[in-house]
């Protein structure tokens, strides 16, 4: 999926390893029961196994590497945030939200199953995420596990991702300006990306100053991703994206591209990339892969 | 709401105190923001403030009282499970699930707002619950907070409440027998009731044997509640219930009443009440209010 990374062999290798591990971990966590609720497990597995860029787990891993976090801890925190991400995609794709039939090149959960099953699959994944984080296998120190739960709760709920989706649902009538679109992105997609990077720092007992630096990097990264998404939605190919494109414009929603123009948005993303990289400077060469991620965010073609 | 408790003044007094505290706590936790996502907060407040029997927080409080748990700890765990309960009501009421217009005598969230807002409000409450539990104010020992999160995640997800709702959605075609209906109840409503009672024990570092006794009591209590619900659905009055009744029969779903007959179901509930009380015997007079709850479960008229 990350074809553009031939110039970044470490990142491509790591992602390939990570995609395999995430699939294995979801598979182990969600065995199909021989019971009448098996349909629910099939729907959850459909949404979590065998697809996705696994960007959020990658960010946990790279951030955690700065502070010598064990792979087991980082992978479990990555699994939790990936579960929340899958939850949000299932619910956002529903007919009463974005009404999408295609996700990652496959039918969305409510198309492959039905709406009720999709709602319950999303709910189950949200509950699962917090259980994974609070499990002693995630970190031996319960205070750290609790902090992960508190911060992910904030990032995914009404004050974070769900609040962002609420604004997005109203965005056509709200006629958002640049500040409004930025706030929408910060909540809807930025909060989980920022949590992923913070999770590595929390697991590694990073200092407040280092957490702050990574939060500044995360704020830039989230915006770069959204601008790139808007550019792909404007110019991309549906086959590569694996989902419907051009839908924001069709819905009359404001985006970074509609507000800044394609060239203006691209320039803004390049400025943000330079700023993101500058926030990583104090970490030296160890943060090279986090720089690569920010660059990938801008140059990806899907 | 608990009119039938004039013979149990302590329980009525405690419930009245609890209803007021839950409303205050949800109000404090969910201030209306001056922001475009305010609609989401209004929907969550509609679903959580000013209604409900607050049975689950009551169970946390009564169970916690056996082990000298502070009121602050019990109320916060009670708030968390009440948030999950409200989440499940919002989602279960949706058109693609039970399609209900009335809840607690008021319009359901998707009727008062819209479907997308209802889905996001339910999601937000689920995330909120885990954040409340993991917050240091819930208990000074992070290991206890983490255990509460792990157990509530299990009780509310695919292996618990959400799995039960999945079976319920399929129950007309499944043609469940008594074992099937019992398993459905154990997951759909029993898991959260059992968690509420276990939460008091976890907060109070109860011994395994005492946790087991309370779990046995909880299993009986859950069944008593469901049988009483089925009886009310069969014989009750919509005005008192504050929701549509007779819908299970209309949908062709098997219930304890359809499988055992009204009198058979009533007898079974009386047997379960005696068993529930017997599991509380080792706790002596201190567990009197938990006995009262089991009796109330059977004799309530809504």
What's this model, at a glance?
Two copies of one chain form a homodimer. Chain A is mainly α and 302 residues long.
Provide structural commentary.
- Two copies of one chain form a homodimer.
- Chain A is an all-alpha fold and 302 residues long.
- Chain A has one domain: Farnesyl Diphosphate Synthase (Orthogonal Bundle), CATH 1.10.600.
- The first copy, chain A, is 72% helix and 1% strand.
- Chain A is built from 15 helices and two strands.
- In chain A, strands 1-2 form a two-stranded antiparallel ribbon.
- The radius of gyration of chain A is 18 Å and the shape is globular.
- Chain A starts with 8 loop residues before the first helix and ends with a helix.
- The model of chain A is unreliable at 1-6 (pLDDT under 50).
Q: Roughly what percent helix of chain A?
A: over 70%
Strand content of chain A: under 5%
The number of distinct β-strands of chain A equals 2
Largest interface, C-beta closer than 8 angstroms, per-chain residues: A-B, 59 and 59 residues
Q: Separation of termini of chain A?
A: 8 Å
The CATH C-level name of chain A is Mainly Alpha
Features:
Farnesyl Diphosphate Synthase; 1% strand; two-stranded antiparallel sheet; mainly alpha; homodimer; 2 strands; 302 residues; disordered N terminus
């Amino acid at each position: 999926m990350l074809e553009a990374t031939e110039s970044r062999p470490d990142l491509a290798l790591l992602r390939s390893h990570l995609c395999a591990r995430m699939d294995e971990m979801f598979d182990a966590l969600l065995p199909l029961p021989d019971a009448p609720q098996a349909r629910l497990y099939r729907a959850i597995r459909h949404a979590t196994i065998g697809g996705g860029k696994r960007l959020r787990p990658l960010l946990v891993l790279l951030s955690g590497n700065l502070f010598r976090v064990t792979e087991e801890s980082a992978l479990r925190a990555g699994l939790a945030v990936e579960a929340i991400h899958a939850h949000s995609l299932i619910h956002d794709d529903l007919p009463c939200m974005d009404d999408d039939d295609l996700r990652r090149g496959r039918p969305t959960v409510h198309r492959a199953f039905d709406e009720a099953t999709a709602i319950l699959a999303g709910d189950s994944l949200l509950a699962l995420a917090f259980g994974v984080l609070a499990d002693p296998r995630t970190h031996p120190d319960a205070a750290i596990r609790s902090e992960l739960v508190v911060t992910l709760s904030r990032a995914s709920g009404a004050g974070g991702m769900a609040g962002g989706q609420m604004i997005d649902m109203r965005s056509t009538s709200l006629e958002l300006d640049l500040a409004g679109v930025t706030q929408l992105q910060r909540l809807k997609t930025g909060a989980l990306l920022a949590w992923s990077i913070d999770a590595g720092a929390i697991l590694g007992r990073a200092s407040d100053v280092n957490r702050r630096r990574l939060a500044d990097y995360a704020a830039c990264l989230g915006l770069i991703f959204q601008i790139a998404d808007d550019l792909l939605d404007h110019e991309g190919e549906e086959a590569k994206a694996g989902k419907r494109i051009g839908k924001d414009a069709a819905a009359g929603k404001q985006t970074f591209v509609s507000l800044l123009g394609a060239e203006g948005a691209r320039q803004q993303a390049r400025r943000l990339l330079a700023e993101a990289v500058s926030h990583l400077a104090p970490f030296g060469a160890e943060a090279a892969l986090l720089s690569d991620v920010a660059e990938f965010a801008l140059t990806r073609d899907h």
